[in-house]
């Protein structure tokens, strides 16, 4: 059979895939490309400066694409944020403050992973080298609700952050800690301190700070300093999915106190913090983690 006839016959015998399949392939390709492009940009910025601010304007469109590419999931950042309404009081505040609520979870991830594996619930510990206010003791917090971990928003953030930090340290297996923080003001709480210990490092490799929501608060400005305490940047995480990433080995970070915008009603600042530490640490070393952020 002539070659031209062979090609024509093959087309008759093996019809093209349905248009819907082609469109879905295009969506998946675009989704992967969008996430990869964002990850590459964040890696470059983090490597150059040791910190970065990624606004919701950058992140939210990629999240929407990511959801479409995964069987049309729903962008549910608001659903994840709802889990900040049921946090327990932080009973370990060295300053006696009653302005902080939180929950905590611990995970692991092997090199190249795109998702986290939850570990049995355990205490949070930091040495006093990294947290003079609240360190040096085991702090037992209520666990993060499984519902929060089942949201598309949490899945997306894990995949994004594992991609970024995984490119920064390709061979690393990770010990990851998740902290839900709510700082409250109003009533008899005039001032809330997101980082009562001031400028600090957390004793890990990388820290991600993701805004979940702010209501009726002013200030809460994030400051980044080099290890000689010279200021490098100051910005406000204002919108849901605004995020700051820091290389904890290279910079210090801290946040100014918040006050109620309208003193007649309560206000709060809700933050998701994920800390990443290489698991190659010796057994007697503290895993580290977030002290307030």
Automatic annotation (TrEMBL):
The keyword Signal applies. Residues 1-20 form the signal peptide. Keywords: Signal. It holds the Pfam family 2OG-Fe_Oxy_2. The keyword Magnesium does not apply. It comes from the Bacteria. GO terms for molecular function: dioxygenase activity. Gene3D superfamilies: q2cbj1_9rhob like domain. This is 2OG-Fe dioxygenase family protein.
